[in-house]
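re the bet — no i am not wrong, look at it urself. input seq straight from the record:
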Amino acid sequence: MRLGLRLRDDRLPFSDLIALARLAEARGFEALFVPEASGREVFTQLAVYACHTARIRLSPGIATIFTRTPSLLAQAAATLDQLSGGRAMLGLGSGHAPTLTAGHGVHFERPLARMREYVTLIKAILRGAETMPPARLVPVTRFRLETSARPDIPIYMAALGPKMCQLAGELADGVLLNWAMPAYVAQALHHVRLGAERAGCDPATVDVACYIRVAAGADDEILRHAVARELARYIAMPFYRAMFDEAGFAAHTGPVAAAYPEDPDRAARLVPDAMLEALTVIGDAAAARRRLEEFRAMGVRLPVLAPVPAGPDDAASWRAAIELAPAAV
């Protein structure tokens, strides 16, 4: 009964977030994934959770490769691993062009090639290599991680498209999927297997994690609107919109994406119920358990609950969402 938790809420104080991390650990969650947040640096957050938990594994979910160098990511992961007593994982992703350009002034280009170079370089740094593999896209200085114990930190690669899924199978220890439906999961895992086989690896050694949106702790109308608003935010991103279009929702994504920048609430109202039912679990413990079993049957080994807070009390909403899942202890 492996289970992970995606923990991000910029509005909550750290005292509440620490309590949620501890609740997840007490209920037997295996891993905590912390996304990049607009006002909080991800590795600093993970360090806080490392100091207040004892068993749960800790990973950015994800750290974007366009905003840090390979050496900084390797340093951050190794430091987290030492601080947590060997519980670090490293979730990497390319991020999304509009967000990176507007928020960081980063020129987004060739994400696949860049990801290949980053994973190759980070692995070399973590194992203490004296020389670096050749890189064309990433400026590389001679950097060697000085530590007596070389950390064995699993790398999870966020992937949407076929080529990134294949690269995850080829180079990573795990793949992290998002907003997935059965047909998409089957296609993604097919490409992960292709990548692993191309690299001469056993596909069974590549872990498969997937975010599953859940919401609880308020009345149904409030929950549905909160989840629809979260979904609309992703529909407005080109990569995700293309994925939803392929899943059969092309008639709906255009109006949602057009409405979102000016009026997120209106965009949320345009999200059809069929999308919410296909992609999320809202306020129902039995449905959450069924959905977890569905994903496990598809080949997802580490389902990751991704709560969407709703209602007047964020912390209570988070607790209710975490408790939708059966305790794994």
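see?? The chain has a mean pLDDT of 91. told u. also The beta strands are 4-6, 31-34, 57-60, 63-64, 90-93, 155-158, 174-177, 207-215, 280-282, 302-307. so pay up
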